[in-house]
């Protein structure tokens, strides 16, 4: 069992995480994975009262400064829920610190904080973009990374807020019925041999919206990954009775971007992306009732 004082200390000063040994981190990994394994692939959250807020946070990529600023924003806002859309690690200067801080928030208040799986919550991508190498440099033993993978494999993929706003990392899948088909299923119950399921979960993490496009087209990102246009997006939203979709996965000069008649909001929450001088504003979103408002981290 993790002591609350330990969680409070690293939430208050995340730079302490750098000094933790693996046994201390292992406590966090094991406690977090137990929580995630109780959740379903499609989480369903509802706001009980009109004044309640939900804060949605996009890619962080090891930008601890942006994450700490968001934690400062969350406290006085006192939202009902906080949803991280994934891509916590890779590229930035404080990847492990960001991951442990998000997990500590989850453990401390598991009914308030939620983390979804992004395309960087995989071993293969971590090997290509830095987190695995950073982890190995610190702890020397690649087998210890199995505990990180256990976290990834237990994460949910979407959150449905107020039955009308879908939050995910990448985009809509080609299978228009995927969301309804996956509802109520835990990650441990995923049938990976069913091709439609594996493909839909891949596309939820990786797909991108594209203006002036019809249907789904091939993406530069890889096999089975797609760009999608307004027509199929509109069909998906109608079929699933959705008003808005909030996603991350892409970085824009203005910090966030609306698509498709302001029904799809794309946010990105790392200002210091790749550990360079900040050149774009970081953003997040607030859901209140059935409205979505993008915000810039000041």
Report a brief summary of the structure:
This protein is of the alpha/beta class.
Side-by-side strand order of the widest sheet = 1-5-6-10-12-11
Dominant shape? globular
First-last Cα distance: 37 Å
Please identify the structural class as seen in this structure. Answer: alpha/beta
CATH domain fold name: Purple Acid Phosphatase, chain A, domain 2
Largest sheet: 6 strands, mixed
Low-pLDDT windows of residues: none
CATH architecture: 4-Layer Sandwich
What is the level 1 CATH name? Alpha Beta
How many domain units? 1
Helix content: 25-40%
Layout of SSEs?
Blueprint: H1 4-12, H2 22-37, E1 42-45, E2 53-57, H3 64-77, E3 81-84, H4 95-108, E4 113-115, H5 123-129, H6 131-139, H7 146-154, E5 158-161, E6 165-168, H8 178-182, H9 195-206, E7 208-209, E8 216-218, E9 226-228, H10 230-239, E10 244-247, E11 256-259, E12 264-267, E13 283-288, E14 291-296
Parallel strand pairs: 1-5, 2-3, 3-4, 6-10, 7-9, 10-12
Antiparallel strand pairs: 2-13, 5-6, 8-9, 11-12, 13-14
Helix pairs in contact: 1-4, 2-4, 2-7
């Amino acid at each position: 069992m993790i002591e609350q004082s330990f969680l409070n200390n690293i939430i208050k000063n995340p730079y302490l995480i750098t000094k933790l040994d693996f046994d201390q981190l292992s406590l966090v990994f094991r406690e977090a994975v137990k929580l995630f394994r109780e959740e379903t692939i499609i989480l369903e959250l509802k706001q009980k009262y009109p004044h309640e807020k939900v804060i949605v946070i996009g890619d962080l990529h090891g930008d601890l400064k942006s994450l700490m600023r968001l934690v400062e924003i969350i406290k006085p806002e006192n939202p009902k829920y906080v949803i991280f859309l994934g891509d916590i690690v890779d590229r930035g200067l404080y990847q492990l610190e960001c991951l442990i801080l998000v997990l500590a928030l989850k453990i401390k208040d598991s009914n308030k904080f939620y983390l979804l799986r992004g395309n960087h919550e995989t071993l293969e991508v971590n090997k290509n973009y830095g987190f695995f190498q950073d982890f190995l440099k610190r702890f020397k033993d690649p087998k210890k990374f199995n505990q990180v993978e256990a976290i990834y494999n237990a994460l949910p993929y979407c959150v449905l807020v107020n039955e009308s706003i879908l939050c995910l990392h990448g985009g809509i899948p080609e299978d228009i019925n995927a969301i309804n088909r996956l509802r109520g299923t835990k990650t441990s119950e995923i049938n990976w041999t069913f091709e439609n399921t594996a493909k839909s979960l891949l596309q939820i993490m990786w797909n991108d919206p594209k203006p002036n496009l019809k249907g789904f087209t091939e993406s530069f990102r890889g096999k089975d990954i797609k760009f999608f246009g307004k027509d199929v997006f509109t069909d998906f939203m109608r079929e699933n009775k959705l008003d808005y979709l909030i996603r991350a996965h892409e970085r824009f000069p203005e910090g966030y971007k609306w698509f498709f008649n302001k029904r799809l909001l794309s946010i990105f929450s790392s200002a210091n992306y790749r550990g360079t001088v900040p050149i774009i504003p970081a953003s997040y979103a607030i859901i209140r009732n059935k409205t979505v408002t993008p915000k810039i981290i000041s």
